[in-house]
From TrEMBL, chain A:
The lineage of its organism: Archaea, Methanobacteriati, Methanobacteriota, Stenosarchaea group, Halobacteria. It is a peripheral membrane protein. One of its GO terms (cellular component) is plasma membrane. GO terms for biological process: peptide transport. It is found in: Cell membrane. Transmembrane segments: none annotated. It holds the Pfam family ABC_tran. This is ABC transporter ATP-binding protein. Keywords: ATP-binding, Cell inner membrane, Cell membrane, Membrane, Nucleotide-binding, Translocase, Transport. It comes from Salinadaptatus halalkaliphilus.
TrEMBL record, chain B:
It is found in: Cell membrane. This is ABC transporter permease. It comes from the Archaea. It comes from Salinadaptatus halalkaliphilus. Its main location: membrane. Signal peptide: none annotated. Residues 92-281 form the ABC transmembrane type-1 domain. Belongs to the binding-protein-dependent transport system permease family. OppBC subfamily. The chain crosses the membrane at residues 34-53, 94-119, 131-151, 205-238, 258-281. CDD domains: TM_PBP2.
Length: 741, 299
């Protein structure tokens, strides 16, 4: 039963620089109760397609094609008719829930508003809106409010009666996204479009939101279109997947089929970019090049310029859509050639000419880039890392160390509040010890608000610890203002959001040269070094004279990396280096990080909520929860046999394209650092919590080289991740929410 | 690589691109271009006008007094027989010069206070901003009146009075921007690179607050011209025989019935000038909108 048919849709934008063909002949069908995924990199036209369906494509114009929704062609009706469809029949959820919710109304009011809009056409009188006592019609208001509570319950918001009065800033990102979902569902839509619904969220939250979507589709027979750049997300919840590139659907089919036997080179490329648990530390396959800013709209396959199978024919003729299996269609000229190249991982790019294995352990290459330092005392040579990763024998002294570091924030807003003794403090980082040894990569993982970024700021000196000390090279160091020029030069930092970490008013060249300038390099040396750095991070020299807005996110992050390594630091701290980027760009950047470490002998501290990224890069890993490190140890050990239930839960929440197992979901949001739970901080959310967890703070337990702060570390470790998660006790206080597909 | 990116490779090509974007903006916004034209014409008049005009603005020829517009005196003469056109043209110099100078002083004081308050925070911020609040508690023109009254009537004192009362807007806007910019990660990165505070201000904070300041300044020019004329009108500003528009209005109001041109000429001049600056300022605000930055940020 087909609900929506998009047929040969063309949406174009008129810009000062010419016509941009954002959607260029895309076709798509969605049945009732079905979840369809739409996958592609940034700039492939996914969002414009979605917006064309709901009629929010302005200022673009639909120039050709049809959108058939339940028998009505939406491109052919008046604006007011389309408006009636929006919300009642077609609803949409956007990427950033905190930006989509109106901050001045409580959540219940916003859900009720959407109910009112769809409830009756008479509209709402100003009196009702203002809740004027005695005059307003309160019964309707009450009815809507009750319905809002029902909806909030339906989308999985705990305690909806309390939360209905909460304002968006009082809720976590995941809660806000659920509220958005409730608003979307208020009109009881037939079709729900979710545009990157989980991209702004934590892995644990993402898993639960995706579960929710799946349940809703099953319960209410609502069709869902999930848009994402991450194949993992889509694979986790969709029945069918469409892959989009250059405004066209290049391949579509059932999810399982697409994952098992992808046909189009682009699909293969996207899939191969994903990090897998069994990847080890190998070089990641990537898709060469980037999505062009615009497509000229001539004939030919849009992917031809980046495709390793591309022929002249691809650039001249539009590829025909071929059916290659049940409900599985591909638009590609060179299918035979692609198929001949059997392994999907090898598709897409000649960039993996680098031999497989562990390229960064290859010492011969590192010598070629050996840069003699002024003092000559530092070893640039990257050493074989596998030996030093686990044992502490040959690690020497730590370069960067946090000793009992605590950072608290005073929450009292004003002197008056402080004077009246309202002195609540937030413990962002609480007594953390962390040491980073030369040549290794330490990963720091945890959900948002676990204190990872604050710890990074303390280590780099952007903030001062409340108690404890940060040591560099064995010497206590203060904040940035107190550090010597040498100490500053020895620590590089790369931030999460490349757009925010680069001054929009400076040219790339000036941004990279900034640390050099402060170090007193003259302009000739600076120019030379910038040229070297651009080359090192894989950017052409001409990028030096560009402005940040002319670069893509991945390119900007390369610039940020170049700036961080400009003075040849010994340690580089990465705060979520790839979280804001597409999967294909992420793979390229992770390869770059590995190359740089090998060439320059760098020490890394990588902070991320993405466990796959940390697993890929880290030798040792520390898991942070509510300001404390709950588990630490060699990366493989921690990820393969986690000995803390929090780590286990984090691992299970990662969307996988290669497992279909039911997972234990971590319930509830991370508590606030103001009211820290007693005993073990994790006990309110822990699936295996016992009474002792509430009262006693667990000591550090060593389990096979891993340091774990859990009363039941041994049991957790022996259970493993993939096994069925059975509690040591049957009635755990907070039972895990087990969902089935 | 797209066509667009290729075009931006060379610096010259990049500038052409930006130039085209500005032209595009002007073409789509006739009001902005009208404002721009008025301002440019006014500037040209102020600079070369006095050389071209045949009459002297202060020479009294009593036998020619109160003559209606004619070929010899296109805008007529005033009650002392001075050519009104000449006085308007010379007056443009005063008006524009005062407006630019006063606005420049306002921008410098306001931006300085805003930068320091926003960046330093704490009690410095508190003191500076309360100062601004106190200042804002008085209506601007009334305060300027008081200051000019105390200092005594003269053009210089009017400028001092107007500069003293008008900087608060800049201080507030700049402080607000700095509060958000100083938390940006590029500022953190600069600190990590060891950038001293002075250079941090010059390279990272100042360039990023220029846009709003530029817009307010343009809109401010019109207000200052109006305020100067107002103060001159009530006799606190330019003293006769200075050909200032406000003074001319004041002089001519006694002859409103018999010689309409004496009042109308400076009145229309003031109106057009203020209109021009306002239109240009509105256009600039749209053009410098963050969403337009990709096209116009190099302006």
């Amino acid at each position: 039963m087909t609900l929506l048919t998009v047929d040969n849709l063309h949406t174009r934008f008129e810009t000062n620089d010419g016509v941009v063909r954002a959607v260029d002949g895309a076709s798509l069908t969605i049945d009732r109760g079905e979840i369809v995924g739409l996958v592609g990199e940034s700039g492939s036209g996914k969002s414009v397609l979605a917006r064309s369906i709901v009629g929010l494509h302005s200022p673009g114009r639909i120039v050709e094609g049809a959108i058939d929704f339940d028998g009505v062609d939406l491109t052919d009706v008046s604006a007011s008719t389309r408006e009636r469809y929006r919300g009642t029949d077609i609803a949409m959820v956007f990427q950033d829930p905190t930006a989509t919710l109106n901050p001045v109304f409580d959540v219940g009011e916003q859900i009720a508003e959407s109910l009112r809009v769809h409830d009756d056409s008479s509209g709402q009188s100003l009196l009702d809106f203002c809740h004027v006592p005695l005059v307003s019609d309160r019964s309707r208001w009450r009815r809507h409010r009750e319905r809002a509570i029902e909806l909030m319950d339906q989308v999985g918001i705990a305690d909806p009666e309390d939360r209905v009065d909460a304002y968006p800033h009082e809720l976590s990102g995941g809660m806000c996204q659920r509220a958005m979902l409730a608003i979307a569902l208020a009109g009881d839509p037939d079709l729900l479009i979710a545009d990157e619904p989980t991209t702004a969220l934590d892995t644990t939250t993402q898993a639960r939101i995706l579960d929710q979507l799946r349940e809703l589709a099953a319960e209410t027979d609502t069709a869902v279109l999930v848009i994402s750049h991450d194949f993992g997300v889509v694979a986790d919840c969709c029945d069918r997947v469409a892959v989009m590139y250059g405004g066209e659907i290049v391949e579509r089919g059932p999810t399982d089929r697409l994952l098992e036997s992808p046909e189009h080179p682009y699909t293969r490329g996207l899939l191969s970019c994903l990090l897998r648990a069994d990847d080890g530390r190998d070089r990641l396959p990537t898709i060469d090049g980037t999505v062009p800013e615009r497509f000229d709209g001539g004939p030919g396959c849009p992917f031809a310029s980046r495709c390793s199978y591309g022929t002249d024919d691809c650039e001249r003729r539009d590829p025909a859509v071929r059916t290659v299996g049940p409900d599985h269609e591909v638009a590609c000229h060179e299918l035979e050639a692609v198929r001949a190249d059997d392994s999907p991982a090898a598709a897409g790019s000649p960039s993996e000419s680098t031999p497989p294995g562990r390229p960064r352990a290859d010492p011969s290459e590192s010598v070629t880039r050996d840069r003699a330092r002024a003092d000559g005392s530092r070893t640039i040579d990257a050493r074989g890392r596998s030996g030093s990763a686990g044992g502490s024998a040959d690690r020497g002294d730590p370069i960067l160390e946090a000793r009992g570091v605590t950072r608290t924030y005073d929450l009292a807003d004003s002197a008056i509040q402080r004077a009246f003794g309202d002195s609540r403090t937030l413990r962002a980082v609480d007594g953390v010890n962390l040491a980073v040894y030369p040549g290794e990569t330490v990963g720091l993982v945890g959900e948002s608000a676990s204190g990872k970024s604050t710890l990074a700021k303390l280590l780099t000196g952007l903030e001062a610890p409340s108690t404890g000390e940060v040591r560099f090279d064995g010497e206590p160091v203060g904040t940035v203002a107190d550090r010597t020029a040498d100490q500053l030069a020895d620590v590089g930092v790369v931030f999460q959001n490349p757009q925010g970490s680069i001054n929009p008013r400076q040219r790339v060249r000036e941004t990279i040269a900034e640390p050099l300038l402060e170090r007193g390099w003259d302009s000739e040396c600076r120019r030379e070094r910038v040229r070297e750095l651009l080359d090192l991070v894989g950017l052409a020299e001409r990028y030096g004279s560009r402005r940040p807005h002319q670069l893509s996110g991945g390119q900007l992050q390369r610039v940020a990396i170049a700036r961080a390594i400009a003075l040849e630091p010994r340690v580089v701290v990465f705060d979520e280096p790839v979280s804001a980027l597409d999967v294909s760009v992420r793979a390229q950047l992770l390869n770059l990080l590995a190359d740089l470490q090998r060439r320059l002998g760098l020490t890394y501290l990588v902070i991320s909520h993405d466990l796959d990224v940390v697993r890929h890069v880290a030798d040792r890993v520390a898991v942070m929860y509510l300001g404390e490190i709950v588990e630490r140890g060699p990366a493989e050990r921690v990820f393969d046999r986690p000995s803390h239930p929090y780590t286990a839960a984090l691992l299970e929440a990662v969307p996988r394209i290669d497992d279909g197992t039911d997972a234990t979901r971590l319930e509830g949001p991370i508590p606030s650092g103001v009211d820290v739970p007693s005993g073990c901080r994790f006990h309110p959310r822990c699936p295996i919590a016992e009474p002792v967890c509430e009262t006693d703070e667990p000591d550090s337990v060593a389990v096979g080289g891993v340091d774990s702060h859990c009363h039941f570390a041994q049991q957790v470790a022996s259970r493993g991740v993939t096994e069925d998660s059975e509690s040591p006790r049957d009635q755990s206080p907070d039972p895990p929410d087990t969902t089935t597909r | 690589m797209s066509v667009l990116e290729d075009a931006r490779d060379g610096d010259g090509a990049g500038r052409r691109q930006v130039g085209r974007a500005i032209v595009g903006h002007l073409r789509h916004n006739p009001f902005t271009s009208a404002g721009g034209i008025i301002v440019v014409v006014l500037g040209v008049v102020a600079i070369v006008g006095p050389v071209v005009v045949p009459h002297d603005p202060t020479t009294q020829t009593l036998q020619n007094r109160l003559q209606a517009p004619s070929l010899v005196h296109p805008l007529g003469t005033d009650q002392l027989g001075r050519d009104v056109l000449a006085r308007i043209v010379y007056g443009a110099r005063y008006s524009l010069g005062i407006a630019l100078l006063v606005t420049a002083i306002r921008v410098v004081i306001g931006t300085g206070v805003g930068l320091v308050a926003g960046y330093a925070g704490g009690w410095i911020d508190e003191i500076l901003m309360r100062l601004v609040d106190i200042q804002l508690a008085f209506p601007g023109l009334v305060l300027a009146l008081v200051v000019a009254g105390i200092l005594g009537p003269s053009l210089r004192n009017v400028m001092i009075a107007l500069a003293v009362v008008g900087w608060t807007t800049y201080a507030r806007v700049v402080r607000g921007s700095v509060l958000s910019i100083r938390e940006r990660e590029y500022v953190a990165a600069a600190k990590l690179a060891g950038t001293p505070r002075r250079r941090l201000f010059r390279r990272h904070l100042l360039p990023n607050v220029v846009n709003p300041v530029l817009v307010i300044a343009t809109l401010n020019l019109g207000t200052v011209i109006l305020a100067t004329a107002g103060l001159s009108f009530i006799g606190l500003g330019a003293q006769p025989p200075t050909p200032e528009w406000g003074t001319m209005l004041s002089d001519g109001r006694n002859h409103l019935r018999s010689a309409w041109w004496i009042v109308n000429a400076p009145g229309v001049a003031i109106m057009l000038t203020v209109l021009g600056f306002n239109l240009l300022g509105d256009g600039l605000r749209d053009a410098l909108d963050p969403r337009q930055q990709t096209k116009l940020e190099e302006v």
